[in-house]
Amino acid sequence: MAQPSSKKHRNHPQYELLYHPGIPGRGEFIRLALEAAGVPYKDVARDEQDGYSTVQQICNNKGLESTDGNPPVFSPPALRIPGAGKDGKSALVIAQTPNILLYLGERLELVPEDDEAGRFYVQQLALTALDLNNEMHDSHHPIAGALYYEDQKPESLRKSQDVREMRIPKFLSYFERTLKHNEKTGNGQGLYLVGDKLTYADTTVWQVLDGCMFAFPKEMEARKQEFPALLGKFYENVKEESGLKEYLVSKRRLPYSMGVFRHYPELDRQ
Ligand SMILES: N[C@@H](CCC(=O)N[C@@H](CS)C(=O)NCC(=O)O)C(=O)O
Asked: Which atom of ligand 1 has the smallest separation from the CA of 59?
């Protein structure tokens, strides 16, 4: 079981993350939120014997329900919350990364308190970061997820060029401006995208930046001068946040491999 330094575990159910075992992938957005909050969780595919078959049973079955009377799930990640089902005894299952983050945001105190507009704003930023996540996936799988990269390499080269030259700067510019706006209006100090403390917008944007740095190291290095606040102070600070600092050097943090963020040198800036 994942065991981050648990500041708030007495008030939380035993969250269960249902995701693939070998990659950070989209599950990482959920892990980062839980780790930043210091709330223990079970990473079912990794922490339980035969855990991955449980994940597949809940997330990839062809039946009319996922488990405990919950509707079917399209694909991982999903979050299972024992005791949060309609009858107060069974489990609630929630899928779609941003939906899970929305559920956890208030509970983990990773959204501005008593501020509806602030909650939507955090979600807006997370959704935007997840759009870039999808662009990064498509940079090596522009034609079909079921085909090998090698079978779509010419298209990957074209797509990556567009992602690096057009899309990445557009997203980074937006996040850089957001940081500056919040420095002026929300006491963000260049450390936070919304308000004056960590939200899941920060952890989600950070994860996408980190993944982009892994996939396109030359491109991202070259962009540092253009986006110094985002790729400098902000990026470095999130790594130092309590909970995340310990997690990022722990075994729970999986290395990038064959997931959304992949490093093919030929797709990077030449
Ligand atoms: N929009 C969904 C995407 C979920 C998704 O694409 N999951 C991947 C793993 S990271 C998967 O298993 N997809 C199977 C498929 O799309 O066929 C989310 O954000 O959770």
From this structure: 12
Cis? peptide before 255, omega within 30° of 0? no
pLDDT above 60 for 7:
no
* Ligand 1 geometric centre to CA of 75 (Å): 5
**What is the 76 CA–ligand 1 centroid distance (Å)?**
6
78-102 confidence digits (pLDDT tens): 999 999 999 999 999 999 999 999 9
pLDDT tens profile 94-144: 999 999 999 999 999 999 999 999 999 999 999 999 999 999 999 999 999
Strands (DSSP E) found in the chain: 15-18, 41-43, 78-81, 92-95
Tokens representing residue 161 in the block: 């060029």
96 lines ligand 1 (CB under 6 A): yes
Contact call for residues 66 and 59 (beta carbons, < 8 A): yes
User: How many angstroms does the Cα of residue 139 sit away from the middle of ligand 1?
Assistant: 16
Cα Rg of the chain (Å, integer): 19
Confirm if 164 and 172 have CB atoms less than 8 A apart: no
- CB of 77 within 6 A of ligand 1: the answer is yes
- 3-state SS, residue 77: coil
What domains, with CATH codes, occur in the chain?
A: 9-107 (3.40.30.10), 116-267 (1.20.1050.10)
